[in-house]
Design a protein that fits this description.
A mainly alpha, B alpha/beta, C alpha/beta, B: Rossmann fold, 6-stranded mixed beta sheet, 14 strands, about 60% helix, C: alpha/beta, Rossmann fold, 4-stranded antiparallel beta sheet, 11 helices, 10 strands, globular
Chain lengths: ~290, ~650, ~240
C-alpha cells in the first residue's frame, strides 16, 4: 500500500510534466491550428541548457529564468522557420513535416553537443525523501508539481489580466475578428510558439533532476503529452491536468508491476483509444462541420 | 495505359536494373541495390497513404518491423520455408495495417500522424519486450532463403527481390490507376465530397492502410533475408522519417519517384560517411544553386529574396562540411534540412519537378482514347431508370424537421414535399437554413427531430455515402472537386458505384475489370459531353475556370444515377452566359426524369425553371407555391426586403 | 472620408465585384444594399482588409488602405463590425469591449479616456451593461449584435463599417438595432452600412447604393431610393 502511494506521488509529478507540455500544445493549437511535433525536443533542450548552466556553476534557481528565455527564443525560431511559411502556403502537411524536421535537427545537435549518453542532473533539493501520509515523496517531485502549477497559473493570469494576454485569447477565439481589433495575429502566433517552447523548456529543467537527462529524453515524452492534450480536448486547461495525472499514475504503476520496458505503453494505448472513440477528447467540444 | 515513351523508358530502366549482378561482382554494391529495391517496395505502399490519401504516416517503420519479425519468428520457431513466409508476412502486416486504421478512422492531419507515431512506437516496444517471441534486443538471425531446395546465392536473391519489386510496381500501378486509386485521391481532395459520391471515407482509409501495410510487410520480410539479422532498434522513428523523406523527395504519386527516393536514402548515409566526397558534393551543390539563382533572377523567373535562403543555406552547408571532422554524426540534421528544403521548395519532389520542366501536361492527363467507345448515347439516360415511376408522385417527404445546434434552431419544424419529375426551388435570406437543409438531406448532419422519407426509406441516421448510393446526389456551395484529378477522373469517382471489381481483379486486369473501366470511361465522357465539358476531359479540375468547375460538379453528381439531385447555389459567381447554359442543363436533367431541388439566390434562375418554390426564413417555411405566387407573397417580400413599418 | 474607386475583388477564381465606386463623406451614413451573393459583404471585407482587392483603390482620408493588413487598417481608425457578429465567445462582455480599444491601449491610437468610453458604451447599450460580466458566447443574437457594434465604437473610430447588423435577428431586435444606428448617426459617427433589409437601411441612411451581381445598378439619396422600383427588382428579380 505504501508502495502504491509512492507510485501515485511519482505519477502525479510525472503527470504534471505531461500537463505542462500538453499545455504548450494547446497554446499553439488554439491560436494557429498548428502543433509543434518537436515539442518534446524543446523540453530536452531546456534540460540540457539548464544542465550546462548548472555545471558552469550557476545556481539552479538562477538557471530557471534563463532556461525560460532560451525556450522563448527557441519557440520563436521554430515558428519562423517551420510554421509561418507553411501557414502561408496553407499546407498542413508542410508544418507537420517541418516541425518534425526541426525536432530531428535539434535532437541531433543536442547529441553532438552533449553526447549520446544520459547525464546526471544535480538536484537542487535534498535527495532524501519526505514522508507524506506514510509514503515517500522526493522534495524534487513536490517542486515539480508546484512549479508546473505556478507556470500554468502565471499564463492564466497573463491571459486574463493583461491586454496582451486578452489579445492572445481573442486570437484563439476568432482570428479574423482579432485582426479587426488591430491585433497583429502573426505576432500572436509567434508569441504562442515562444511561450509553448518556454513552458516545455521550464518543464525540462524541472524534471531533469528526477530522471535521466539526455538527447533522447524528449521524443516519447512529447508523444505522450500529446495524448494528454487530446484527452483535455485541446481546449480545456482542467482536462490536461486530470489527463496528465491519470497518465502519470498509470505509467508509474505499469512500470513497477509489469516491467519498465512496458511503461510507455499505457500512454500510447490511451492515445489510440481516445482518438478512436472520442477524438474531441474527454473534455473538449466537438466541432460542427461546415460545408 | 501508359504512353509509349514512358513504357519504353521504364522497360529499359528495369532491364538495366536486372542486369546489375551481371555488371558487377562486388557484393557490397549488389547488396546496396537490393536494399534500394526493398525500400522501393515499401515506398510504393507508403505513397498510397502519403501521396494519394494525403496523410502523414509516422508508423511505417513499425509495419516494416512487423514484416521482418513475422519472417524472423516463423523461421526461427517453425523453420518455415520461403513460400510460406512471404504471404504470411504480407498477411500479418496487412492485419496490423487494419488495426492501425481503426483509431485513424475518425481523425486526419496531425491527429492521424500522432496515431501512426504512437502505433509505430508501440510496435517497437513490443518487439523489444516480447522476448519470448522475438528474442528482444538479441535479435534474430536468418540465412538466405532456399528456392526449390537450393539455397539462393547473393545473385539469385537479387533476382528474387527484383522480380518481387517489379511485381509490386505493376500491382501498385494498376491499383492506383483504377477506381481504387481514384477513391484514394478523392479522400484527399475532399472527404465530404467523397462520402457524398458514395466513396466511404472510412472504408477507403482502411483499404489504403491495409494495402500499404501489405507492401511494407513484403519489404520487411525481404529485408530480414537480405540483412540476415534483425533487431528492434532498426525500426525506429528515424527510419520512418527517412521513408517519408524518400517519398516526398523522390516525388509522390509516381513509381519512379519512389525508386529514386529509395536510392537517395540508401546512398546518402554512405555518402555522408565519406567526408571528402560529401565536401565535394556540398560545394558543387552550393555553386550550382548560386549560379541557378543568378540566372533565375536575371531572367526574372524569381526574386533575390526568394533565392536568398537556398543560396545562403547551401553555401553555409558547404562551409560547415569543411569545418567538420566527420559528418556521420550530423546525418540526421542533414535529413532534417532536406525535409525542410523539399517541403518548401520542391513540393512535387524531384520527379515532379523534372516533369514540370520537360512535360507540358501533368501525368494525370494521359490522353483518353475514345476510339471504339460509344459516347454518342446520352449518358444521363441511365438515370432514367427512375422513369419507371410516374411524375407527380411524392419522391421525398420531410416532416417536422428540426436541426438544433446548441441553442440555435437552424431548421425549425420544416415540412417539405418534393414531387417526382419537378424542379423544386428552395430560397430564403442568408442564414434561413437552406444549406443546412441540404446537409441534413445528405446525411452530413443528423436532424435533432423529424422524419425524412426518400423513395420509401428513411434517410435519418444513415451515412452520407449510403444515402448517395441510394439515389440522392448533390453539388456544393463551395466547389468541392478533387482538384488534382482530371475532369474525367472526377466524374469517374461518381461512377465508383458501377464497379464490382476488387483488388484481385484490378491487379490482374481481369476481363471484368477491363469491361467496367471501359464502361466508366464511356459513361464519364458521355456525362462530360452532357454538360459541355467533353473537350476538357483531361484537364486537371483545379485548372478549370470557375463556371466550368460548377458544371463538372453537376456531371459528377449525375454519375451516381440519382433520382434526386440537390444543387446548392449552382449559379453563384457565374456570368450571365454561363447562367443560361446552366439553366438549359438543369432543364435537360429534369426532362430525363431526375427530380431537382435547387437552392439559389438568383431570382431569375429560380423563377424561370422552378415548378414549385419553398421559402425559408429563420429556419421556418414561410411560403410555398408556384414561383409567381411566391414572388408576390407579402411575407416573402418582407423577409427579403425588410418590413415597411420600420 | 472613405473613397472606394473601381474596386474589383473576389475569392480565388470567383470574381465577385466587377468595379464598384462608393463615397462615404464625413458624418454621413451611407448604405449598400442588394440581394445575397451581390457582393455586399465582399465589399466590406475588402475595405477592412480581410481580403485583398484584385484591382481598384480604397482611400481613407486620402491615404490608400487597399492591400494592407486588417490590423493596420484598424489602427488607422476604421472599425468593422463583421457579418455574423464574431464576438469573442469565451471572454466577457467587458473584455470584448476593452479589446475594441486595443490600439488605444497599446499606443497605436491616441488613448483618450478608455474607462470613460467604456461607461458611455454601457449607457448607450443598457442590455450590455446588465450582462457586463457574462461570457459573450452566451448572449442572444441581438445582444451579440449590440456588443459587436459597441466594440467597434470603442475604437473611437473615424468610420464604422456595419455588416448586416440585422441578420438572423427577430424583427423587434432589428428595430432596436436600427434605433441605435440612428442614435450613433445623431452623434456624428460616420458609417458605411451593408444591409439585406433595404427598407430599414434606407430609412436611417443619408445616401444609398444598390449592388447587383457585383456592380452598382442604382444610387442616390436614400429617401429617393426607397420608392424606386429598381430596388425591389434587384432583390426579387423580374422586370428590368
Amino acid at each position: 500500500m505504501e508502495i502504491l502511494l509512492q507510485l501515485v506521488y511519482s505519477g502525479i509529478a510525472l503527470g504534471m510534466i505531461y500537463a505542462v507540455i500538453a499545455f504548450g500544445y494547446q497554446l499553439t493549437f488554439q491560436t494557429s491550428d498548428t502543433l509543434n511535433f518537436g515539442q518534446g525536443d524543446a523540453l530536452m533542450l531546456g534540460a540540457m541548457v539548464g544542465l550546462t548552466l548548472v555545471n558552469m556553476g550557476m545556481n539552479y534557481w538562477m538557471m530557471l529564468p534563463l532556461v525560460i528565455v532560451f525556450g522563448l527564443i527557441q519557440g520563436g525560431v521554430v515558428e519562423r522557420i517551420a510554421v509561418r511559411p507553411a501557414i502561408k502556403i496553407k499546407s498542413e502537411f508542410g508544418w507537420i513535416m517541418s516541425t518534425i524536421a526541426l525536432g530531428i535537427i535539434f535532437k541531433n545537435v543536442a547529441e553532438n553537443i552533449w553526447g549520446r549518453d544520459d547525464l546526471k542532473f544535480p538536484s537542487p533539493l535534498p535527495e532524501s525523501p519526505i514522508k507524506l501520509f506514510g509514503a515517500n515523496v522526493l522534495p524534487m517531485e513536490i517542486l515539480v508539481v508546484v512549479g508546473a502549477v505556478l507556470m500554468m497559473l502565471a499564463v492564466e493570469f497573463f491571459n486574463r489580466k493583461t491586454i496582451y494576454g486578452k489579445a492572445v485569447v481573442a486570437t484563439f477565439n476568432d482570428r479574423d475578428a482579432a485582426k479587426l481589433m488591430g491585433i497583429n495575429t502573426g505576432l500572436v502566433i509567434t508569441f504562442s510558439y515562444a511561450l509553448s517552447s518556454a513552458t516545455a523548456a521550464f518543464a525540462g529543467a524541472l524534471i531533469a533532476p528526477l530522471t535521466l537527462t539526455g538527447a533522447t529524453m524528449g521524443s516519447v515524452l512529447g508523444l505522450k503529452a500529446f495524448a494528454v492534450a487530446i484527452i483535455g480536448g485541446l481546449t480545456s486547461g482542467m482536462g490536461i491536468i486530470v489527463g496528465g495525472i491519470i497518465l502519470g499514475v498509470a505509467e508509474t504503476t505499469t512500470g513497477f508491476y509489469l516491467s519498465t520496458g512496458y511503461k510507455d505503453v499505457p500512454g500510447l494505448v490511451l492515445l489510440l483509444l481516445v482518438l478512436a472513440y472520442k477524438p474531441a477528447g474527454l473534455f473538449g467540444k466537438s466541432a460542427i462541420k461546415k460545408v | 495505359m501508359m504512353n509509349r515513351k514512358t513504357l519504353f523508358a521504364a522497360v529499359i530502366g528495369l532491364a538495366l536494373l536486372a542486369g546489375v549482378p551481371l555488371f558487377t561482382a562486388n557484393s557490397y554494391y549488389v547488396h546496396m541495390v537490393i536494399t534500394i529495391m526493398i525500400y522501393a517496395i515499401l515506398l510504393y505502399g507508403l505513397d498510397i497513404v502519403v501521396g494519394y490519401t494525403g496523410q502523414v504516416s509516422l508508423g511505417h517503420a513499425g509495419l516494416f518491423g512487423v514484416g521482418s519479425y513475422t519472417a524472423g519468428v516463423l523461421f526461427m520457431k517453425l523453420g518455415a520455408p520461403l513460400w510460406v513466409i512471404i504471404p504470411a508476412s504480407i498477411g500479418v502486416t496487412a492485419a496490423f495495417g487494419a488495426l492501425l486504421a481503426l483509431p485513424a478512422l475518425r481523425v486526419t492531419g496531425p491527429y492521424l500522424a500522432m496515431v501512426t507515431l504512437a502505433f509505430g512506437t508501440i510496435i517497437q516496444i513490443l518487439i523489444n519486450e516480447m522476448t519470448f517471441l522475438t528474442e528482444g534486443p538479441l535479435g534474430i538471425t536468418i540465412p538466405k532463403p532456399s528456392l526449390f531446395g537450393q539455397k539462393l546465392s547473393e545473385q539469385g536473391f537479387y533476382w528474387l527481390v527484383f522480380a518481387l519489386m517489379v511485381l509490386s510496381l505493376v500491382v501498385v500501378h494498376r491499383i492506383l490507376k483504377s477506381q481504387l486509386g481514384r477513391a484514394f485521391e478523392a479522400l484527399r481532395g475532399s472527404p465530404v465530397a467523397s462520402d457524398c459520391m458514395g466513396v466511404s471515407v472510412y472504408r477507403y482509409k482502411v483499404y489504403a492502410f491495409v494495402i500499404s501495410a501489405g507492401f511494407a510487410g513484403l519489404a520487411g520480410c525481404l529485408y530480414a533475408y537480405s540483412e540476415q539479422y534483425i533487431s528492434p532498434n532498426t525500426y525506429n522513428f528515424e527510419l520512418t522519417v527517412l521513408f517519408l523523406l524518400a517519398v516526398i523527395m523522390g516525388g509522390r504519386k509516381t513509381r519512379s519517384g519512389a525508386l529514386l527516393g529509395a536510392a537517395i536514402i540508401v546512398i546518402l548515409p554512405k555518402l555522408l560517411d565519406d567526408l571528402e566526397l560529401f565536401r565535394i558534393v556540398a560545394s558543387s551543390l552550393a555553386v550550382l544553386i548560386s549560379v541557378g539563382a543568378v540566372v533565375g533572377v536575371l531572367r526574372k523567373m524569381t526574386t533575390p529574396k526568394a533565392m536568398a535562403i537556398p543560396v545562403i543555406g547551401t553555401i553555409a552547408l558547404a562551409g560547415f562540411s569543411f569545418w567538420l571532422e566527420s559528418i556521420t554524426d550530423w546525418r540526421l540534421s542533414i535529413f532534417g534540412l532536406m525535409i525542410l528544403f523539399v517541403v518548401y521548395y520542391l513540393q512535387d519532389g524531384i520527379v515532379g519537378f523534372a516533369r514540370s520542366l520537360f512535360a507540358r501536361k501533368s501525368p494525370a492527363a494521359d490522353s483518353v482514347s475514345v476510339d471504339g467507345l460509344d459516347t454518342s448515347r446520352d449518358a444521363v439516360m441511365m438515370a432514367a431508370k427512375a422513369g419507371t415511376h410516374e411524375t407527380g408522385t411524392d419522391l421525398l417527404v420531410a416532416n417536422g424537421v428540426l436541426m438544433q445546434f446548441g441553442g440555435l434552431k437552424a431548421i425549425n419544424q420544416v415540412d417539405l414535399r418534393i414531387k417526382r419529375g419537378t424542379i423544386h426551388g428552395l430560397i430564403g435570406p442568408n442564414g434561413s437554413g437552406k444549406s443546412t437543409m441540404m446537409n441534413v438531406l445528405t446525411g452530413i448532419y443528423v436532424p435533432t427531430a423529424g422524419s425524412i422519407v426518400f423513395a420509401g426509406r428513411s434517410v435519418v441516421g444513415r451515412t452520407s455515402s449510403d444515402i448517395a448510393l441510394s439515389g440522392i446526389a448533390r453539388t456544393f456551395q463551395n466547389v468541392q472537386l478533387f482538384g488534382e484529378m482530371t475532369a474525367l477522373q472526377n466524374v469517374q469517382v461518381g461512377l465508383h458505384h458501377t464497379f464490382d471489381s476488387n483488388i484481385l481483379d484490378v491487379s490482374l486486369h481481369t476481363p471484368r475489370y477491363k469491361r467496367e473501366e471501359k464502361a466508366a470511361i464511356e459513361r464519364g465522357m458521355g456525362l462530360l459531353n452532357f454538360v459541355g465539358l467533353g473537350d476538357l476531359a483531361t484537364e486537371e479540375a483545379r485548372n478549370l475556370p470557375y463556371g466550368k468547375q460548377r458544371l463538372l460538379e453537376i456531371a459528377r453528381a449525375l454519375a451516381l444515377d440519382p433520382q434526386l439531385l440537390l444543387l446548392d447555389e449552382p449559379a453563384a459567381g457565374l456570368t450571365a452566359p454561363d447562367i443560361k447554359v446552366l439553366i438549359n442543363i438543369i432543364r435537360k436533367i429534369r426532362d430525363h426524369g431526375i427530380t431537382v431541388i435547387l437552392i439559389e439566390h438568383h431570382m431569375d434562375v429560380v423563377m424561370s425553371i422552378c415548378d414549385a418554390v419553398s421559402v425559408l426564413d429563420f429556419g421556418q417555411k414561410i411560403a410555398e407555391g408556384k414561383p409567381a405566387e411566391v414572388q408576390a407573397d407579402e411575407k416573402v417580400i418582407e423577409a427579403y426586403l425588410g418590413g415597411t413599418a420600420t | 472620408m472613405l473613397s472606394i474607386k473601381n474596386l474589383q475583388a473576389g475569392y480565388g477564381k470567383v470574381q465577385v465585384l466587377h468595379g464598384i465606386s462608393i463615397e462615404v463623406p464625413k458624418g454621413k451614413v451611407v448604405t449598400l444594399i442588394g440581394s445575397n451573393g451581390a457582393g455586399k459583404t465582399t465589399t466590406m471585407r475588402a475595405v477592412s482588409g480581410m481580403i485583398k482587392p484584385t484591382a481598384g483603390e480604397i482611400l481613407l482620408h486620402g491615404k490608400r488602405i487597399d492591400g494592407l493588413e486588417s490590423y493596420t487598417i484598424a489602427k488607422q481608425g476604421l472599425a468593422h463590425s463583421p457579418e455574423g457578429r464574431r464576438v469573442f465567445a469565451t471572454m466577457t462582455v467587458t473584455d470584448n469591449l476593452i479589446l475594441g480599444a486595443f490600439p488605444r491601449l497599446t499606443g497605436s491610437r491616441p488613448k483618450g479616456d478608455v474607462a470613460g468610453d467604456l461607461d458611455r458604451a454601457m449607457d448607450l447599450f443598457p442590455r450590455l451593461k446588465e450582462r457586463r460580466n457574462q461570457l459573450a458566447g452566451t448572449l442572444s443574437g441581438g445582444e451579440q449584435q449590440m456588443l459587436a457594434m459597441a466594440r467597434a465604437v470603442m475604437l473611437n473610430p473615424e468610420i464604422v463599417l456595419l455588416d448586416e447588423p440585422s441578420m438572423g435577428l427577430a424583427p423587434i431586435l432589428v428595430e432596436e438595432v436600427f434605433r441605435i444606428i440612428a442614435d450613433l448617426k445623431s452623434r456624428g459617427v460616420t458609417m458605411l452600412l451593408v444591409e439585406q433589409f433595404a427598407a430599414a437601411a434606407l430609412k436611417v441612411a443619408d445616401y444609398g447604393y444598390v449592388l447587383e451581381n457585383g456592380r452598382i445598378s442604382v444610387h442616390g439619396e436614400a429617401s429617393k431610393l426607397r420608392d424606386d422600383p429598381a430596388v425591389r427588382a434587384a432583390y426579387l428579380g423580374g422586370g428590368h
